[in-house]
Amino acid sequence: MSEPINVVVTGAAGQIAYSLLYQLAAGSVFGPNQPINLRLLDIPVMMTVLDGVIMELEDLALPLLREITPTADPNVAFKNVAAAFLVGSMPRKEGMERKDLLAANAEIFKVQGKALDQHARKDVKVLVVGNPANTNAWICSHHAPSIPKENFTAMTRLDQNRAQAALAARLNVSVDKVKNVIIWGNHSSTQYPDAAHATVNVQGSTKPVPSVVNDDNWLNITFVEKIQKRGTAVISARKMSSAMSAAKAAGDHMRDWWIGTKPGEWVSMGVLSDGSYGIPRDIVFSFPVAIENGQYKIVQGLQINDFARSKLSITSKELEEERTEANNVLQNK
Ligand code: NAD
Ligand code: LMR
User: Which intervals hold domain Lactate/malate dehydrogenase N-terminal (predicted)?
Assistant: First the structure.
């Protein structure tokens, strides 16, 4: 059994955290031999709600869960953390786009970036879930200059899981038979869910998804729009944004970053662009990544046709606009 690591979850009294905390305590993210100390950050008015969450965590009676620290102070929450789930922020309501949350949430990620810079381990792995996730991750990393920029990531794993599930349903196979679907760009309605490089295992043989689906109209329009609009569809039905599936995706993202991906497989993560695939630098853009020894690398050499190129341009342009807007919001505070 390893020494416990410190893991912070922000927005710990909220919806997503309620499902995420169980996964962390049960060992399904950091593995069955990794005990954890949980740091639970929320705002002062939520401290009594957090007390109830802590009672429930205790009542899980799970041996990997060691110390639990509830706090409203980022300086306490981020002390020596090895992993950070930045969930805490306002979710969107019906009729809003995720970028409409920038004004409300940008400051949170500035403050937490500074706290990470001062208190976290320099090898901390940061996953930003709070929306607009890509630009919030960018804000956070810019306020934490002593931590490598590649340690800041944004969650597009929910979009990947949605895309994988939609392809599996269309092909009438179980979801594990579909691999290597890609989410490019922003976790927003401009994202490009790309099945061009995805494979499906049919009766023991691996085939390209496009040739098995054999319907470009469905793949380029129906499928793309379904994934782009899935968050909106959940909000419209539930009157609250997705939480159970978001928590599962956050666990998947961190687990793969911590433990690695299988040879020949990749996952999508929002990471600081290094210019790969002609994407502008200095935006947090979702790319396919392969992970080994806790380090991800953007998968290189995938063919990008004219259709895909036009989609990548739209979503990267939106991220550049969000970066400008974030700078404006933070300067006017
Ligand atoms: P929620 O409202 O249920 O919970 C948010 C929690 O954050 C609340 O307890 C709130 O008090 C807390 N909070 C607010 N400001 C804080 C601060 N400064 N420090 C610490 N905690 C703070 O919302 P939720 O459903 O858990 O969603 C959280 C965020 O995740 C939203 O921004 C939502 O849009 C986003 N989200 C992202 C994805 C994704 O795929 N990237 C998916 C689903 C939801
Ligand atoms: C989602 O994709 O479900 C979340 O980002 C919540 C939202 O605002 O859509």
Answer: 6-152
